[in-house]
Design a protein that fits this description.
single chain, Rossmann fold, Glutamyl-tRNA Synthetase, domain 3, 3-stranded antiparallel sheet, 10 helices, elongated
């Protein structure tokens, strides 16, 4: 399927490394509502590229949870692990374009040599040590893409104009590990294109990755989807949700039988004001009301605790 029609195609892409929590539910509901509000389709992708981090039984758990909230998906599930051939093709295309190079640096070496601040875990500014060749005898630990000096900007449906210089943020970033495994940044760009996704709605934690993904889309000649990054759910006093929070208070399994109350709380978190009468409604009806009222411009800028 390709982008020949004007139909909106959104998606939700959980990684089966744990159960869905209230933060994932915000991303699921937000992406569902925006796709449906535009008369579009909502696809479900299982981001199972990183085999060692997966937890057995999680895919079923995620599917059951989505169903219990009335979040039905369109078409077949898309499994990332079944598209390695497509990642390889994209990688080869970039290799032929001369924008990739092998890198022999370990994480530790990069951390030591990097003077720029370290922003997030997947992205230490890489100082470019192997840009002009690896030192003699080094083994290939990753394949990196050369970034350009230009500023990459996009218009986020909620955040407005967002700009980033990749060189300052992350430097030449890795697309493939030395053992052959592909990085999330490459996979997500290929996956969204292969499944015709033209609307990406996800949490603010992925906002800093978006310019890297846009850079890859431009190199590969792929269309750029619309982006909408959603506020993050936090614990008390703005604390980042910890694994423990996820497992205890935010684990959606603890909400069995109270899905409707949580769904209404998610709608309020997304800037909607559902009427009191909806309190007794089924999840499908609550979501149906949300379709008619969802507006990315009304989503609050700041995240916070989910108010029940
Ligand atoms: N699988 C990623 C995650 O669970 C989301 C990828 C995306 O939405 O682009 O964080």
């Amino acid at each position: 399927m390709h982008l020949s029609s004007n139909e909106i195609i959104g998606r939700f892409a959980p990684s089966p490394t744990g159960s869905l929590h209230s933060g994932s539910l915000v991303a699921a509901v937000g992406s569902w509502l925006l796709a449906k509000a535009g008369g579009g389709r909502w696809l479900l992708r299982i981001d199972d590229l990183d085999a060692p981090r997966q937890v057995p039984g999680m895919v079923d758990d995620i599917l059951r949870t989505l169903e219990s909230f009335g979040l039905t998906w369109d078409g077949e599930l898309y499994w990332q692990s079944r598209h390695k051939e497509a990642y390889l093709q994209a990688f080869d295309q970039l290799l032929q374009q001369g924008v990739l190079y092998p890198c022999g640096c370990s994480r530790k070496e990069i951390a030591l040599s990097s003077s720029a601040p370290h922003h997030d875990d997947d992205c230490r500014p890489y100082p470019g040590s192997c840009r002009n060749g690896m030192r003699a005898g080094a083994v290939v630990r990753s394949w990196r893409v050369r970034v350009s000096a230009e500023e990459i900007c996009f218009d986020d449906l909620r955040r407005g104009r967002v700009c980033q210089r990749l060189g300052e943020r992350c430097g030449d970033f890795a697309l493939r590990r030395g053992d052959g495994g592909f990085a999330y940044q490459l996979a997500v760009v290929v996956d969204d294109h292969l499944s015709g996704v033209n609307q990406v709605v996800r949490g603010d934690d992925l906002l800093p990755s978006t310019p890297r993904q846009i850079y890859l889309q431009r190199l590969l000649g792929l269309p750029q989807p619309a982006y909408c990054h959603l506020p993050l759910v936090t614990g008390p006093a703005g604390a980042k949700l910890s694994k423990r929070d996820n497992l205890v208070s935010h684990h959606l399994g603890n909400w069995t039988g109270r899905e409707r109350a949580l769904l209404l709380a998610v709608l309020r978190f997304l800037g909607l004001d559902p009427p009191r009468e909806l309190a007794g409604a089924a999840c499908g009806e609550i979501l149906g009301w949300g379709i008619g009222h969802f507006d990315p411009a009304r989503i609050p800028l700041a995240g916070g605790e989910l108010q029940l």
